[in-house]
Each structure stands twice: as C-alpha cells, then as structure tokens.
C-alpha cells in the first residue's frame, strides 16, 4: 500500500521519498495510517465521500453475483497487475464451487478484451452460467450489480 512498496509482482518500484516529497499531504482511506511517515499531513477522506446514492427502482435479480474486474490482463489469460490485484487465481477456484456445487449464475466484468472477442478462461463447469463482459462504464456496471444478489 502506498507509500510502501507494492506486494504485486507486476508493479513497478519507486524511490520511497520521491512521491512523499511532491505533495504537502495525502488524502487516504487507511484504518491504520501509521504506514505514512509522521511528518506527512493526512486527511481521512475516501472517494466514496464524494458520491451520493441515487434512488432508483430495484431490478429483477437475474444473477447470483457480479465480479468487478478492473480491465483484466485478458491477452495473458488474466495474469498480470490488475488480475493479481483482484486475486483472479482465487476467483477461478471459487467459480468451480459457485458454478458447480451451488449452481450459481454470475457476471464477470472486464474479463473480455476491449474488442469483446477474447475472454479469460473460466472453469468448464461455468459454461452457460457466466456472462463475461469487456470493461464497462459505471452505468453499465451498476446495472449488472443491481440485477445481482451480491
């Protein structure tokens, strides 16, 4: 977690003091901000503090779940920085049980390339139970989320 080095093996590295010296302080959402040096000014403020929920009608639940990928590394079968950050290897293990043992249906967002052609591999037991999408704008993503139980 910034300002510490990333545990993601696909992340670059940077000199610790380079970015801490560029700004007079940082907005953060850390439960324990002690990872920042004591001389850095901090303000506890998350991005979610700037969005208001919209009242919208509930949609019929078509899916059991929606997984929010973040522009996964589709060309490498979801092996790379974004996939590591989203723990895709665990997702594939969980899908085995969710699609198989529990017969769940779901949506895997951003697990197809931008041309909507190639998709990250998923377990065979999920065929016909999963919709895979390319990266979606926020409105499209929210639509899938509203149609999902979780």
Short description:
The chain has 150 residues and is an alpha/beta fold. The protein has helices at residues 16-20, 81-85, 88-101, 138-146, and strands at residues 25-28, 41-44, 65-68, 106-109, 130-132. The model has no long low-confidence stretch (mean pLDDT 87).
Descriptors:
150 residues, alpha/beta, three-stranded parallel β-sheet, two-stranded parallel ribbon, globular
3D architecture notes:
The chain has 150 residues and is α/β, with parallel strands linked by helices. The protein is 22% helix and 13% strand. The chain has 4 helices and 5 strands; from the N terminus they run H-E-E-E-H-H-E-E-H. The strands form 2 sheets. Strands 3-4-5 form a 3-stranded parallel beta sheet, with helices on one face. The protein is globular, with a radius of gyration of 19 Å. The two termini are 27 Å apart.
SSE inventory with pairings:
Blueprint lengths: L15 H5 L4 E4 L12 E4 L20 E4 L12 H5 L2 H14 L4 E4 L20 E3 L5 H9 L4
Parallel strand pairs: 1-2, 3-4, 4-5
Mean pLDDT: 87
Q: What is the count of DSSP helices, taking H or I runs of 4+ residues?
A: 4
Secondary structure: number of strands? 5
Strand percentage lies at: 5-15%
The topology string of helices and strands comes to HEEEHHEEH
Overall SS class:
alpha/beta
Helix content: 10-25%
Kindly report how far apart the N and C termini lie.
27 Å
Which strand order does the major sheet show?
3-4-5
**Uncertain parts:** none
Q: How would the global form be characterised?
A: globular
Q: Report on the biggest sheet.
A: 3 strands, parallel
The Rg value, from CA coordinates, equals 19 Å
């Amino acid at each position: 977690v910034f300002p510490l080095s990333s545990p993601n093996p696909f992340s670059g590295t940077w000199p610790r003091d380079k970015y801490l010296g560029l700004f007079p302080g940082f907005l953060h959402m850390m439960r324990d901000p002690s990872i920042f040096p004591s001389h850095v000014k901090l303000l506890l403020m998350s991005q979610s503090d700037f969005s208001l929920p919209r009242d919208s009608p509930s949609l019929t639940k078509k899916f059991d779940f929606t997984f929010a990928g973040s522009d996964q590394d589709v060309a490498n079968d979801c092996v790379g920085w974004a996939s590591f950050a989203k723990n895709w290897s665990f997702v594939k293990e969980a899908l085995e049980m969710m699609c198989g043992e529990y017969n769940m249906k779901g949506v895997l967002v951003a697990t197809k390339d931008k041309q909507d052609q190639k998709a990250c591999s998923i377990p065979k037991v999920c065929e016909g139970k999963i919709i895979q999408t390319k990266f979606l704008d926020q409105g499209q993503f929210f639509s899938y989320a509203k149609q999902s139980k979780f």
